[in-house]
Backbone:
């Protein structure tokens, strides 16, 4: 075992060449399908040794053990329990084959199970599984550890903690990304890097995934954020099928040419994954030698010219704040203090409201979310973990763990599948000693409150002295300035008139010293009227003083716009993109929508038609109101304008010019129009006797049959029936035949429409039809739903329609044929 | 069940193009302004945000005991179509995905409020997102199979398609332990929550020739 520093020093001197694929090489040497490669290698040590030696001869300076799947879960599939022994023995075989000069990496990969919150494997159980494998490898004499081919950031975290907890060896973690630049579970390369390097990975990178070209692009995204050496092990191109065989198309020569590019992009450890061979590695070495690209100057983690990056991550996304970045709002709403509904929800163990608050705050502009579960009557720690689990799925924003209890904080940051911000750490004796090492272990960023046991220092320089004192301790545990947000400490201006000035000064000094700066704004205006204005003005001033984060309710009417304007004015929103996006409003919709409306502009007829075509409820009501004021009769508006408009919508739908959302938009508007005119239509006008709208409207009973829960298709049909003047009795979904019959007896409909989604519920339609008939109800039955066909419906005397428009047309035909009405408006 | 893999808190992705097509959009025919498209996309994204996407995967060996009988996991399924889709395979994967019960509640709420435009967009977006989860599971399976020199068959198959009986889902629900994900099969063989799917896909060894596959699929 080399110590960590030796390896790091080695990497500071220049790049290190790793090996290529093991799995595909073993297959070439006769590894049969369906057996464990590790157990097979254990039985064929000469084969394993030969492959590894050929990598050494090709130029590999670091070689992995053949223990990719030697974790307790995978070995368990082959009924092997002695995980430690298998790993130890495989490591020893490799050591013997390779000698002492080669760095031997103990290889660990996925168990195949997903770790909570992304699966059912509890986090601690996962960490324990990996600890077992790591112990075996350690005993077998590996120099460092590799956690590779990870697609689940949480499994990577569990493995990393598992390995580190056996004694902090040098550990490289490489993740696998898909063509879309995310892991299968949705993590971006930036997020993975930030999460893993802050959790203590000594090197981070990418393996497997794609061919070199695609991987290079991802490495370039990681490089500016890398504090640790980067690693890359691409496949020999994207796998392709050739003659029934999976092949990796990229030959050694082409592969080798990429090696210097990876080094130039900042990579310190380069090798190959699936499909690569010792020949690929040889070519890589030759290219590196001739390009002179072994030097350390290019390694991303050694670059000196980088700005200070404050970086956080969720399971999916990174949040990166540079000196010129816009202000980030930390949404403060997920906090039960003073919120009845949230208190009830958390007490009941529910989280739907938490997800909704997360969404709302994001939509209002929050860049991350504060989570707090401090309230009496609940277990704070458990509740916070529940919130973390649910938000890991439903939100991509990084979280700020907000608790006074060090134990709660530690539990939360251990589980959190990203790099969290912790709110907060102060000079409070006892707490600092307890919390700081925990924060350091998980690499969390934190908010530093410059408080002393004696209270709040009054002036900015006094506050900075406290900051420095705490920072000195943190530095000893690996912290840098850019991992910390200094809280300027907001005090109430009404009681301490000079305090806001000191707060602003603290922000300025903190930024000058290289820290980030944060405020919880709202306290400043406590006890005063018009608080929002004070908060807004203070925010603008604080931004000018260098504020980078603000804890606030992003939905505040003044705060959001002030932030946008401040970013713009301070040059943190180049070319005003964000500002304009926020205030330009949505593009005008009506005129460009389809160009279908009649000319509009002052003419209510055109306006009504246009509103229906564009599905605009409000403007339809306005136009109708205008027309009525202008003396138009309600019935004329309905029959002369609205019905022709909705018929036109039907035609456009038939022609596929309109599709479902537009049809529904128009239908909804039409319904509103009806509701608006309906009371006015009730009073008869002279000469109205024969008007169709005074006749009893045709009646339809509609239902989704028993056992079937699919409602939407039937609801579409119902809406369109209503649009065309039918009276609809909608019985809902999962309706037993008896209830349909009862309703039919009661309402005596002209038509019964039955919906069934699948073949298993379709039989309920003929059953119901028969029941209706046996009761002497002669109304025709119209059947519909995804699996229903015309032939089938006709086979028992029912009728069929494929969609809502067809359903209305079919109904009108049937009614006309039965002489119940003149043909409806559709004819 | 040993080897069962449970996936929770999955990132739901919006397959926007597929959603448009599901809604009846026809390229070159349908009218869709940039503003409308933007609004539609925002609505579809909001829908997908409400999904609580989960799933399960189980890899099993199987045998064909006749041209239309597949036996796996102690179950026997009669289906020529399924047997054909498994041609050239020795193993299969069962999989399922669900969008969660919360989504159905939201959709019911929209329907009850008569917000039909929004409802149809939500319905289509969620349907496509759940279906797309199975694509991702297939990718995941292949990610691992590569290391074994194997891959999945070109198409997955679902109960309810072709001659594979819907009731086969009863076995899938049990083998995949779907009740722990909140998924049940009702007496009419409908999965609840509604936005749920089950599927079967074959696993091929990469060293089988096309001729062999053709031979087997006869
Ligand atoms: C999207 C979709 C899914 C989605 C969403 C499903 C859902 N229920 O929400 C997902 C991916 C989750 C899914 C899953 C499954 N699906 Co699916 N799915 C579809 C698909 C493509 C569209 C359904 C849909 O939502 N349409 C949109 C709505 C608005 O339309 P609609 O309900 O059909 O209503 C319209 C018409 O039918 C008609 N209509 C409806 N009711 C009425 C009533 C009357 C009186 C009239 C006149 C007209 C009418 O007008 C409506 C408006 O246009 C259909 C195939 C198809 N093209 O229809 C298959 C389909 C329904 N699914 C099918 C299958 C097999 C399944 C699964 C069993 C697959 C599996 N093994 O997992 C599961 C079962 C899910 C469950 N909950 O049990 C089969 C059913 C076959 C059968 N044997 O019954 C279908 C028909 C596909 C096929 N061709 O084989 N599915």
Residues:
């Amino acid at each position: 075992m080399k110590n960590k520093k030796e390896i790091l020093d080695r990497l500071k001197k220049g790049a290190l060449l790793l090996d290529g694929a093991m799995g595909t090489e073993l297959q070439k040497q006769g590894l049969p399908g369906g057996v464990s490669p590790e157990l097979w290698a254990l039985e064929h040590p000469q084969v394993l040794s030969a492959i590894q030696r050929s990598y050494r001869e090709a130029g590999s300076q670091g070689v992995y053990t053949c223990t990719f799947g030697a974790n307790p879960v995978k070995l368990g599939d082959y009924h092997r329990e002695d995980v430690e022994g298998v790993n130890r023995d495989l490591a020893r075989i490799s050591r013997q084959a390779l000698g002492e000069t080669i760095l031997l990496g103990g290889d660990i990969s996925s168990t195949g199970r997903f770790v909570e919150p992304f699966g059912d494997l509890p986090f601690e159980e996962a960490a324990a599984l990996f600890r077992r494998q790591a112990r075996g490898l350690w005993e077998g004499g590996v120099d460092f550890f590799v956690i590779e081919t990870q697609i689940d950031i949480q499994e990577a975290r569990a493995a990393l903690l598992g390995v580190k907890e056996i004694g902090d060896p040098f550990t490289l973690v490489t993740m696998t990304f898909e063509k879309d630049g995310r892991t299968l579970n949705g993590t971006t390369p930036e997020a993975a890097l930030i999460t893993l390097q802050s959790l203590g990975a000594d090197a981070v990178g990418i393996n497997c995934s794609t061919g070199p070209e695609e991987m290079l692009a991802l490495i370039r995204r990681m490089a500016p954020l890398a504090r640790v050496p980067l690693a890359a092990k691409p496949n020999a191109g994207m796998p392709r099928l050739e003659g029934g065989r999976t092949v990796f198309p990229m030959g050694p020569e082409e592969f080798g040419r990429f090696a210097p590019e990876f080094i130039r992009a900042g990579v310190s450890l380069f090798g190959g994954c699936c499909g690569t061979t010792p020949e690929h590695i040889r070519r890589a070495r030759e290219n590196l030698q001739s390009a002179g690209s072994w030097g350390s100057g290019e390694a991303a983690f050694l670059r000196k010219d980088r700005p200070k990056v404050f970086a956080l991550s969720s399971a999916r996304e990174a949040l990166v704040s540079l000196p010129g970045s816009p202000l980030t709002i930390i949404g403060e709403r997920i906090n039960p203090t003073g919120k009845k509904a949230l208190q009830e929800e958390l007490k009941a163990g529910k989280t739907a409201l938490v997800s909704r608050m997360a969404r709302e705050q994001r939509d209002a502009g929050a860049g991350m979310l504060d989570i707090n579960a401090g309230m009496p009557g609940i277990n704070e720690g458990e509740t916070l973990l529940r919130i973390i689990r649910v938000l890991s799925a439903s939100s991509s924003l990084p979280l700020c763990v907000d608790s006074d209890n060090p134990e709660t904080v530690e539990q939360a940051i251990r589980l959190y599948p990203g790099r969290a911000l912790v709110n907060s750490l102060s000079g409070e004796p006892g707490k600092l000693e307890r919390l700081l090492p925990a924060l350091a272990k998980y690499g969390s960023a934190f908010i530093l409150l410059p408080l002393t046991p004696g209270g709040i220092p009054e002036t900015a320089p006094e506050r900075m002295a406290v900051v420095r004192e705490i920072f000195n301790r943190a530095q000893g545990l690996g912290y840098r300035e850019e991992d910390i947000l200094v809280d300027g400490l907001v005090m109430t201006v009404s009681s301490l008139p000079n305090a806001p000035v000191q707060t602003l000064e603290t922000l300025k000094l903190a930024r000058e010293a290289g820290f980030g700066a944060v405020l919880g704004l709202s306290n400043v205006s406590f006890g005063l009227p018009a608080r929002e204005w004070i908060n807004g003005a203070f925010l603008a001033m604080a931004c000018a003083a260098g504020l980078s984060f603000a804890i606030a309710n992003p939905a505040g009417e003044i705060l959001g716009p002030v932030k946008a304007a401040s970013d713009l004015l301070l040059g943190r929103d180049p070319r005003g993109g964000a500002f304009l996006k926020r205030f330009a409003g949505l593009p005008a919709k009506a005129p460009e929508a389809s160009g279908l409306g009649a000319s509009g502009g002052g003419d209510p007829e055109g306006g009504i038609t246009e509103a229906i075509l564009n599905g605009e409820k409000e403007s339809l009501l306005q136009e109708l109101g205008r027309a009525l004021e202008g003396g138009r009769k309600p019935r004329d508006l309905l029959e002369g304008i609205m019905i022709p408009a909705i018929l036109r919508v039907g035609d456009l739908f038939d022609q596929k010019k309109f599709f479902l959302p537009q049809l529904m938009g128009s239908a909804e508007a039409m319904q509103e129009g009806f509701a608006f005119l309906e009371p006015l239509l009730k009073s008869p006008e002279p000469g109205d006797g024969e008007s169709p709208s005074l006749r009893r409207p045709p009646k339809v009973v509609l239902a989704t049959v028993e056992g079937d829960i699919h409602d939407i298709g039937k609801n579409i049909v119902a809406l369109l029936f209503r649009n065309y003047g039918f009276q609809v009795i909608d019985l809902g979904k999962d309706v037993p035949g008896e209830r349909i019959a009862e309703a039919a007896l009661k309402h005596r409909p002209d038509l019964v429409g039955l919906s069934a989604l699948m073949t298993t519920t379709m039989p309920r339609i003929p059953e119901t039809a028969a029941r209706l008939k046996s009761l002497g109800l002669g109304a025709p039955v119209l059947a519909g739903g995804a699996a229903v066909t015309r032939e089938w419906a006709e086979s028992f005397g029912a009728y069929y329609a494929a969609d809502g428009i067809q359903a209305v047309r079919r109904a009108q035909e049937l009614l006309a044929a039965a002489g119940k009405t003149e043909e409806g408006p559709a004819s | 069940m040993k080897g069962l893999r449970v996936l929770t808190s999955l990132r739901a992705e919006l397959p926007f193009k597929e959603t448009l097509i599901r809604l009846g959009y026809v390229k070159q025919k349908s009218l869709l302004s940039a503003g409308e498209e933007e609004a539609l996309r925002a609505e579809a994204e909001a829908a997908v945000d409400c999904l609580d996407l989960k799933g399960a995967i189980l890899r099993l060996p199987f045998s064909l005991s006749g041209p239309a009988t597949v036996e796996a996991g102690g179950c026997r399924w009669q289906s020529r179509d399924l047997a054909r889709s498994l041609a050239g395979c020795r193993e299969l994967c069962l999989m399922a995905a669900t969008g969660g019960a919360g989504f159905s509640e939201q959709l019911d709420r929209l329907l009850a409020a008569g917000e039909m435009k929004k409802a149809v967009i939500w319905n289509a977006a969620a349907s496509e997102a759940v279906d797309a989860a199975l694509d991702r599971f297939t990718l995941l399976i292949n990610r691992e199979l590569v290391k074994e020199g194997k891959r999945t068959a070109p198409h997955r198959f679902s109960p309810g398609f072709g001659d594979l009986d819907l009731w086969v889902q009863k076995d899938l629900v049990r083998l995949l332990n779907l009740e722990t994900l909140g998924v049940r099969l009702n007496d009419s063989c409908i999965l609840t929550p509604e936005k749920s799917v089950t599927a079967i896909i074959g696993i091929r060894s990469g060293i089988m020739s096309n001729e062999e596959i053709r031979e087997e699929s006869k």
